[in-house]
Here is the input.
Amino acid sequence: MTTNDAYAAPITEPLFDGDTGNFSLVLRQLLVRLLRGPYLDGSVDAAAWQLLLDQQQTISDYFSEIFLSLTLDMDRKIAMLTPAQIEQVHTAPIAPRRPLKRDETLLALRLRLLLEQHSGSGTDAVVSRSTMHEILAEHRQSTDRDDKRFAESCDAAIGRLQSLRLLTSTELENEFRISPALAMALPLSNIQDIPRYIAAIDANEPAFNLTADDNDELVEQTPELVQE
Here is the structure.
């Protein structure tokens, strides 16, 4: 029996008073991690990733019972939960995330391009805070003349992507790793469409699968693959 087989073996003693479950402690912990989201990164936790692969059918079956699909990117070693598309009440176990604002969306799309350009290199895609400020400066609206407020807006966009773990910290204070999960958070069928998405946002025009609402927020109509 392998180590992961032992981890997945049914428990012989309850883990707490009233415990009627069968899953082992580590398997239950993995389920909780997936539910908390926003994703599991197998390149960071190899043991959890291997357990997920070994018990993929069991885990998928469990989440299907609560209207969730387990989505895996085998190349990037990323696992996420996707709410099932079903038009019935009481079928949303994960609360929808707040839509990305304009700057957050623009930054995410530009970072998605950088991630794609870096694919196959064998190293992490990294970006500095100053580079992200420069990226957003390229999309700065002509009516925005307050430099201090603009810088704060840039940092807020960076902070939002950090909260979603689409940007993660590195050893350097103002350098960030672009998470491979960004490719699943923005599941575009054609990477070449990104410049057109960006141009539409710059022009304040709804296009493709993005629409603008009255609060200057861009609501993604693609599946919600990221949870907070």
In short: Residues 102-118 form the longest helix (17 residues).
